[in-house]
Write a structure and sequence with these properties.
Elements lengths: L2 E6 L3 H16 L3 E3 L7 E6 L4 H17 L4 E6 H5 L12 E3 L7 H11 L3 E3 L22 E8 L10 H5 L3 E2 L2 H13 L4 E6 L10
Parallel strand pairs: 1-2, 1-3, 3-4, 4-5, 5-6, 7-9
Antiparallel strand pairs: 7-8
Length: 206
């Protein structure tokens, strides 16, 4: 297994997390490719804010599985986290993860290649969960970088599924953020945009 393809749906936080996962694979010697037809493994980072978003994720998942019957396919992101009881029925994905433990995704993919056993890795959020410090310092094709500094929401609005998909408010420690943006700037990026699920809550737990 050499080539990894990423497909991302949803917000800038999702795109940032995809960039972080790309870095994890690149650092382990894998090639991140731009065309899914050349991939040995495909990671789909899902969104579930709208029903149409869910539909697009599943359409893509089925299409990729049809074209790549032997590839390793991992479905991750907000949809599995929010609908954990339903995702075990998804036959097209070999690995199903939520919005936690993304820092372990390379190990999880490699374990599947070795054991060939489908895995569903979803754990519920707790009120005392800490911020998972994924970082990305290389944005080779952009002069602007989006950096996630906050995750989750405490509001539980009646129309919104985000607290169930992202957990409670958590913030990236300032010393981690400082080191990350210094490395991004040193790489030539001219603009850094701070992003999060509910930025108004950044640092609340501090």
């Amino acid at each position: 297994m050499e080539n990894i393809f990423f497909l991302t749906f949803g917000c800038k936080v999702n795109y940032y997390e995809t960039e972080c996962m790309k870095s994890l694979f690149s650092n382990r010697g894998y090639n991140v490719v731009k065309e899914y037809k050349t991939a040995d493994a495909v990671i789909i980072n899902s969104c579930t804010v709208t029903a149409s978003g869910d539909s697009r994720v599943f359409t893509a998942l089925k299409k990729i599985r049809k074209v790549l019957p032997d590839a390793v396919i991992a479905l991750t992101g907000c949809y599995p986290q929010a609908f954990s009881e339903e995702v075990e029925k998804i036959s097209e994905a070999d690995i199903i993860m939520g919005t936690k433990q993304r820092s372990e995704i390379v190990d999880i993919i490699e374990e599947f290649v070795e054991n060939n056993q489908k895995r569903v890795i979803i754990s519920e959020y707790k009120s005392d969960d800490e911020f998972e410090c994924l970082t990305c310092t290389e944005f080779r094709e952009n002069t602007r970088a989006f950096v996630k500094i906050q995750d989750g929401c405490n509001q539980f609005c009646s129309y919104c599924i985000i607290p169930y998909a992202r957990g409670r408010c958590r913030s990236k420690p300032i010393y981690v953020l400082k080191e990350e943006v210094e490395k991004i700037a040193a790489g030539g990026v001219k603009e850094i945009v701070l992003s999060g699920i509910n930025l108004a809550f950044y640092g609340k737990e501090f």
